[in-house]
Amino acid sequence: MAFSYTSCVVNWVSLHLFLVVFFSGNLVFGGSIVTHLPGFDGELPFTLETGYITVNKSELFYYFIESELSPDSDPLLVWYSGGPGCSAFNGLIYEIGPLAFNITAYQGGIPTLQYYPYSWTKSSNILFIDAPVGTGFSYASDLSAYPTGDTKSAQETYEFLIKWFTDHPKFLANQLFIGADSYSGISAPIVVKYIIDGADTGDFPRFNLKGYIVGCPRTDAIINENSKITYSHRMGFISDQLYEQAKESCNGSYYEIESDDSECYINLQKIEKLTHDLNKNDILEPKCTWASPDQDGESDRRLLKEESENFILSPPRIPDFWCHNFNYALSYVWANDISVQEALNVRVGTVKDWKRCNKTLDYSMDVDSVLDVHRYLSTKGLQVLVYNGDHDLTVPNIGTQDWIKLLNNMTVDFEWRPWFVDGQIAGYNIKYSRRGSGYRLTYATVLGAGHSPQEYKRRECFDMYNRFIHYYPI
Q: What phi and psi, each to the nearest 5 degrees, are found at residue 460?
């Protein structure tokens, strides 16, 4: 990827960096080092910094964990969660970070935390961002800043990165990867595009961008919705006869069918009835969201957020029936405790009721597809990892494979094959490249995983990421 700067811009940037480093010393701009957390026994065995970055009238909260191996030279991964409106704490505690709740020992009160050894911080610095505003501990000083959407969120995340790296210039030389999952599969590639376009126009600072990572990513509304029907048929949820009827009557497209008296609509209603009681996030797990169905007419795109708080009974109370959502309930208890917020250096009172996923976010879903963005990025010499759990009906692996095939001028470097962890098949993968651009995309499925895969197969996803980030075949 080529960057062009005039000599005066280079000199100005160099001077600016010198002044920042000279006057900063060991000072952390806008952030504080956290050494102890309620529920964790002893001092944290890694470096955690928390803080806020002001973007427009928004105060975006972050958790930054330095690599446990070599923070000065290891890559830096920027990570934010889907939803929209799910806190990056979700990624830190349930997916890729070095902490986990001790679920089996919970007896009430503040949940206990334990060190998780297969963390992505073993080989990377990770910057977790509560984005957009209204997510996690991020808040606005003016109510007018709260309305947001796909485009605005991507722009503000990019502005956040400019300010954060300006405050942390020592990490500018580290290889940079942007990472996101679920609904943030829409905004993440837009953020990557902002970084590339900003470099071409001479924006400061200059990022050492190497690639991006998207897990179970929302990418294209039509492809995603169509893939749910195909996936349901392949998994045996709907019969061959009904599938063929639906495919013929709907002409193979099942997205936003408006006529409620058409044969297509009737067939889709039959399919909905057959799949309604499945847990869409993991088809093999019980469906534990006991709340009434939404009555506000929101589209299925909102279903990328889980109804996390509706089921909070612990395993000891119901030993024969465990629910995945119990994991989430502990985060509400922990993050809403004042002692926890004080330890995290949260501005207490700015967020009166922390939620893992804020379903009241004033959010406009104004981008239906980022397929063209992925096509654009495929000309920029990036390293890309895309993955799905193969038990995910929210963003089925079929749809992800479909949009990858629509990228331009792609060559298959190696065919579909299994990948292994500890001698066992952990999933399947295929690798593509674009000749002449240096662009390489690895697509992987995670065997037995749901949405998002890291929650279900945390160890396997660590191995997948660790190989990718070190440019090893998965």
A: -65, -40
Which CB contacts under 8 angstroms, 24+ apart, belong to 39-46?
Answer: 39/110, 39/111, 39/112, 39/113, 39/334, 39/340, 40/99, 40/112, 40/113, 40/114, 40/115, 41/112, 45/98, 45/115, 46/98, 46/121
| pLDDT for position 321 | 54
Amino acid letter for position 240 = D
Phi, psi of 176 (to 5 degrees): -110, 135
Q: What is the pLDDT of residues 296-324, one digit of tens each?
A: 444 444 444 444 344 444 444 444 556 77
Q: Rounded distance, CA 238 to CA 230, Å?
A: 9
Q: Residues 6 or more apart from 85 whose CB is under 8 A from it?
A: 132, 134, 135, 305, 355, 357, 358, 359, 361, 363
CA distance 456 to 462: 12
Cα angle 389-395-398, degrees, rounded to a multiple of 5? 75
What's the chain's average pLDDT?
Answer: 88
Residue 391, exposed/middle/buried by CB under 10 A (0-12, 13-18, 19+)? buried
User: Smallest Cα–Cα separation from 473: which of 420, 435, 437, 424?
Assistant: 420
Domains of the chain, first to last: 7-220+366-469 (3.40.50.1820)
Closest to 287 measured CA to CA, from 323, 235, 321, 317? 323
Residues ≥6 apart with Cβ < 8 Å to 124: 67, 74, 75, 76, 77, 177, 469
DSSP state of 184: G
Q: Are the beta carbons of 378 and 410 closer than 8 angstroms?
A: yes
Degrees to nearest 5, angle at CA 446 with 219 and 271: 60
What whole-number distance in Å separates Cα of residue 67 and Cα of residue 439?
A: 26
What is the distance between the alpha carbons of residues 325 and 182, in angstroms, rounded to a whole number?
A: 17
- Enzyme catalytic residues: 182, 392, 451
Residue 331 to residues 63, 69, 170: CA-CA distances in angstroms? 15, 28, 32
pLDDT band at 29 (very low <50, low <70, confident <90, very high): low
Answer for the pair 263, 270: CB distance below 8 angstroms, yes or no: no
Q: Report phi then psi at 223, rounded to 5.
A: -60, -45
Q: Is the dihedral of CA 413, 388, 48, 51 positive or negative?
A: positive
